[in-house]
Amino acid sequence: MIQPSHELHPLLEVNGLTKRFPVGTFLRSHQVHAVEDISFSVPRGRVVALVGESGSGKTTTIRLIARLLPVTAGEIHFAGVDVLKSEPHQASLDYRRRVQMIFQDPFASLNAVHNIAHHLERPLIIHKKTSSQAELHERVCDLLETVELKPAEEIARRFPHQLSGGQRQRVAIARALAVDPELILADEPISMLDVSIRMGILNLIDRLKEEQGISYLYITHDLASARYISDQIMVMYAGHIAEGGESEEIMSRPVHPYTQLLLAAVPDPRAGLRTDRGQTARGEVPSLIDPPPGCPFAARCPRVMQVCRQAMPGPTEVQSGHWVRCHLFGPGT
Amino acid sequence: MDGVSFDVHPGEVVGLAGESGSGKSTIAHAVLRILRPPALITGGQVLFAGRDTLLMEDNELEQFRWQNISIVFQSAMNSLNPVMCIRDQLLDVMEHHRLPKAEARSRAVQLFDLVGIDPRRLEAYPHQLSGGMRQRAVIAIALALNPDMLILDEPTTALDVVVQKDILQQIATLREKLGFSVLFITHDLSLLVEFSTHIAIMYAGEIVEKAPARELFENPLHPYTLGLMNSFPSISGTKHKLAGIPGSPPDLISPPGGCRFHPRCAKAMAICSETAPISRAVSSNHSVSCHLYGESR
Predict the structure, then answer these.
(1) Does B240 touch chain A (CB under 8 A)?
(2) % of chain A at pLDDT higher than 70
(3) Which of A184, A276, B60, B260 has the most CB atoms lying inside 10 A of its own CB?
(4) A311 within 8 A of A293, measured Cβ to Cβ
(5) How many CB atoms lie within 10 A of CB A67?
(6) What percent of chain B has pLDDT over 70?
(7) What is the chain B residue with the closest CA to A165?
(8) Is residue B176 within 8 angstroms of chain A, CB to CB?
């Protein structure tokens, strides 16, 4: 298969990424295993969703990729370059331009004392995207129109409190777009918004992917929105990625017992609420402080085996591009 | 909130759906008369088994709350007292309603069994329990006096989906066993369709459509209901583009004139900005407030 050279590498590739936070006192120190040996890649122009419950390590993962937290172990390759080696202490200005972030809470991510124009001018000035004041103003208006905030002139003069939640999230997206990023890390961008305006934001994200070829790593706890927006889905549980693959494949043929449990819990109006308990796994996410060896889901898993409490299995490919880390499917690699 | 009417019959689960600020929680608080000033109930009746709770004296109200209707608030984390163990908080309710101490103690154990927590955890303080367990404990407190009706005000929004499913299944089972009615308030329409028998859709303080859950899901009429249905991607079936609803929910300090939804409505007509539609029954159990379904079309 012949591919253009720039497509040889995925845009982002993460290998064995691990993050531990020390807790406790000097004599009784413990470690929170927030993210444990995760590997995945984000191809150019695609949306990859990282799905998991609260505390599963999703947000830590994107903060590591954004270089907002130091990495404990593992590698982050961006466009084929091992960025933790080439810029070990701090991310370069260039990396910060190419990788942008959208946060969950549009009420907290904008500065209340500055108008919208200020929020969009800052990245343009810092990253030297414009040469004159007139051009700066023009770019700001262009950005607001790209995210469908009209009339742009008027919106630019407003302050965050004069905008609705959905409009604010659009400003946050425009701010990320200002520096022509290649990868946008989106941390639950719709979970704080009213339900009727969520689809508008997801459709905007999708349009920007199509028009500008931007890749996304989309973090969510909502499987339905992950299916709607993403090309690939990875399911996270207690700091590990349990299963990953093409969205439709994962949603229609989940193989990991945790993914199956998660999917069964999503309300589906087509089926009534079943009162038979079936395979519901009782219990909750385990503590991440000094966890025991083995698979973190073992304590809740309806199909647990002896080996599950001893070692974490490696990834096994069950279908082309669909892999799982579960002993039911072999020890993995 | 403006001119809202609905009924909850014994054993029914009535769902109230709407976005934040649509007045869902205000209804729950008005029913129990726990609205804080400056909120004022300016008109209407809340009839419980024929008695108007809005006319009750304080001592009657005290009986009515918890014995007849109890409520589970949105965040269990904040509705429990952090410096009292769960047992004392359970006993508090029962002793206030003059249950003998010994009886209250055995009832506490029974209640914990009922909601699926190990009764040994009765001694625990709220911070020692997980979010799901705290929500179960709050439900146990709500069920302490065997009420006729339970109001659930977004009981699971702060919880993960797996825990949410577990708790709702538990409530469904308890309802079958104990026979109470439920007023279930949430913004998650797909959850409501699954869980309730009847649904009322609220927009900007008014009920715009009412129908049995299945009927509403299969045959939604109001443009807002249709828009809401178009805002929830599905986890199965074919994938299509969903539009959501343009614009944002209105400011209730000066709601739009005429139909409150008309500025966001794709099917708005001239009359919609002038006169507010009244609720019309389109079939024996399905009513909608929209000019599209009026005689004057």
Answers:
(1) no
(2) 92
(3) B260
(4) yes
(5) 19
(6) 98
(7) B248
(8) yes
Whether B244 sits inside 8 A of A282 (CB atoms) is no
How close A276 comes to chain B (CA, Å)? 9
Q: What is the mean pLDDT of chain B?
A: 87
Half-sphere exposure of A330 (CA within 13 A, CB side): 8
Look at residues A300, A266, A238 and name the one whose alpha carbon lies nearest to residue A55: A238
With a CB cutoff of 8 Å and minimum separation 6, the contacts of A68 are none
Q: Write the DSSP string, A176-200.
A: HHTT--SEEEEESTTTTS-HHHHHH
Q: Partners of A274 in the beta sheet?
A: none
**Contacting residues of B for A199, CB less than 8 Å apart:** 230-231, 233, 242-244
DSSP B249-265: PPPTTSPPSSSTTGGG-
| B204 at A interface, C-beta within 8 A | no
How many Cβ atoms sit within 10 Å of the Cβ of residue B256? 16
Residue matched to tokens 């309806």: A302
Residue B115: Cβ-neighbour burial (10 angstroms; 0-12, 13-18, 19+): buried
What pLDDT score does B296 carry? Answer: 45
Q: What is the CA radius of gyration of chain B?
A: 21
> Distance between CA atoms of B292 and B29, rounded to whole angstroms?
32
- Provide mean pLDDT across the span B115-137: 87
Counting Cα atoms < 13 Å in the Cβ hemisphere of B22 gives 25
**Contact between B244 and A271 using a beta-carbon 8 Å cutoff:** no
> How far is B160 from chain A, CA to nearest CA, in Å?
6
Q: What number is the ipTM of this complex?
A: 0.82
Strands (E) across chain B are located at: 13-17, 47-48, 51-52, 69-72, 149-153, 181-186, 198-203, 206-212, 280-283, 286-288
Q: Looking at the DSSP assignment, which residues form a beta bridge with residue B149? A: B69, B181
Locate A237 and state its tokens.
């549980």
Average pLDDT over residues A181-190: 95
Residue B285 CA to residue B279 CA, distance in Å, equals 12
Type of residue at B223: P
Q: Which residue has the tokens 């006096």?
A: B145
Whether A262 and B172 lie within 8 Å, measured CB to CB: no
The H or E element containing residue A243 is strand A240-246
DSSP A289: B
Q: Tell me which residue in A199, A266, A281 faces B161 most closely, judged by beta carbons.
A: A266
Angstroms from B242 CA to nearest CA on chain A? 6
Residue at token pair 């101490």: B101
Reported for B54-58, long-range contacts at CB under 8 A and 24+ positions apart, including other chains, are: none
Candidates A107, A191, A196, partner chain B, best to mutate (most B CBs within 10 A)? A196
* Residue type, position B183, single letter: L
Instruction: Give CA–CA dist B147/A291, Å, rounded.
Output: 43
Buried b (16+ CB within 10 A) or exposed e, A288-314: beeeeebbbbbbbbeebeeebeeebbe
Q: Which of residues 31-70 of B touch A (CB under 8 A)?
A: none
| Percent of chain B at pLDDT exceeding 90 | 27
